[in-house]
Amino acid sequence: MTTVPLAPVRRWILRTQSAHRERGATLSSLYIGVLTVAIIGGMLHRQLAEVFWPPHPDASGLAGASLTALCYGLLYLALRRFGPLALSRAAASWLLTAPVSRRSLLMPSLRIAAAVAAVIGALMGVAIVGHTAPRTLIGDEIALLTAGGALLGLILLLIATAAQAGGRWGAAVDTLMSLVFAAGFAGLVIDTTLDEPVAVTAWPPAETLVPLVAGVAVVVVVILALAVRGLARTPSDHILDASRTAGTLFDTAFGMEPSFLTDMIERRYWAGRRLRSIRLPSRLPVLVAQDIMLTLRRRRRLVWLVFAAAFPLLLGNAPAWIVGAAVLLGSLIAAMTATGNVRTDAGNAVLLRLLGLSSRQAVLQRLWVPGVLAALWSALALTALDLLGDLPSGPWWALGLALGPVGAAAAVHRARAGFVRNDLLPLDTPMGTLSTGPLVNAVMGPDMLLLGLPALVEIAQGNPLSPTTVLVQAVVGVIGARAYLSGTTDTNRTELHR
Amino acid sequence: MEAVEVEGLHAGYGATPVLVDVNLTVPAGEGVCVVGENGVGKSTLLRCVSGLQEIESGRITVFGGDPGATPEFWRAVVTTVEPPTWYPGLTAREHAELVCRAHGQDPAEAGIDEALERFGLAKHADAIPPSLSSGQKQRLVLAIALLRPSSLLILDEPEQRLDREGRADVAGLLADYMAGGGSLLMASHDDDFAIASGAAITTMESLSAVAG
User: Fold this and answer.
1) Where do the domains of chain B lie?
2) Global pTM?
3) From the candidates A277, A344, A358, A360, which should be mutated to test the interface with B, based on the most B CB atoms within 10 A?
């Protein structure tokens, strides 16, 4: 088969596209981009300095190692999720199927991915060094460590690219990296409970670092060259998948519509699963039984939720109300594990009509499983805080259980939020025009967490927890969820929307 | 009481009138099949009777009441005029079982496996519906519609994507449904299928007082 050279095709596409743009459109986009970064950087430079280079190192050796595992594990998982090699949707439709060189087609994508991985890797390196290294380090060492971070990012990119092109071992590496990430998280939690000294004094000197970094750099360059040679072997279906992800991400960002992304992730998840039909548990109401089945089919997510119950512990240095807010948000996220069905019904009530259920019956039944998940998660998180953190005495697990109805109402409300409404009036602010649709959509769901105010106040005040507070929270939660049910549903209507 | 009564129905999309002064009666326990070219408004008529589309004027009653969004209406009426959606993480068979359970049927006695077999879906019982072909999805909807109890079936071209044998089977099932007291309103392109199901055939033109 003859191969058509790609460069002239690309040049022609670029020329034709730019002919349709206004003169100077690219320059003005660039100007706005740089200005935005400058403004945000100017506004947040103190916080950024705190994140990347605090005045004094403030993390122990364990925390440093855990942060490394956590950050780079996350980078790898993100690279895998987004490809890492992807094409624009148009290129995937028209150029992937054309007789052009596959390698030159994918090269720009590899270049961008490599730049992103290296920059993020370097930034992570700076931050980790900034938090752990003694301030006696000289500039050379810092530069070498930063370069090391960038190289680590590149290595992860190369593994991810090979996994994208390769066979089943890719899934095994993904699991391994998830474990690395989880280990990093666990290490951070252990570190906050141990109060280890902030004393990493023995950093390798520049004489050791130079050959090490140089050696790794040589290896990376060689493997990169091999990767470029083998680029054409990446299977088309993997590239198409990644291109769809990239396209959906673009739609989500451009249309400010997060549901595109969540729907895609959910569709992919189930498309990749092999299921066996089982009998629905017969003693429970039918929709409760269905929600239980859905939840039990997401065991891996349940394991992550159990892990995440330790997350509020990491906020030990933050103000107490932030810890409280994290517990409330966590209960919402835990409850959302079981709201996929109510999201389906809210989008289109075809199945509810087929089931012949009223919106009141449906939502009431759909509240149970999210409620149990939220209650168990909050109880777990508050117990962890009670045992390992610095909560005052009291039956915190009971307060967690009392948060169940709050998490359930919030999660079901979130699932019923639907698409972003773009017909709402924009707000004019001194910073520019703010579209209200995405804002209103984003707070639908979390707004119901206000029902957890008694718990939030209790955690924020830091007083010993009394059973009365637990009772108040339970009553407020149940009454609130009940009011939500009667306010937004009807026994005489199938549709979940009015 | 008639199952469906339509009098002087006007409906359309925006400025385009699709149904002009349409009259139709489906007696309880009997079936009516509306035939006609694509675009004459068969599906729009079925959507109006299902209460899924707003009408401009006229009157529609289903079992003496308004077609509507109430759970009672949807306990009596099953329609296939809408494209289906599916629950995440639920197999084809489990969708059927869920619907049967919601109507108080014993899944073991409802004949789910036989229904899937009859519609050529037995091998796909463990598949999630989004992974099925469009024809298989339509057959799954039809299988579930016929499994659950109802008093009125509103079917839009149920013979589509069925082979000859499948058509004969479904026509037989519809005849049984009416023999059991159910009423049927359907749109179809296949006269033989309509005759085999025992439904009375009528054209869109004959329903419209203006055109007729």
Assistant:
1) 2-207
2) 0.88
3) A277
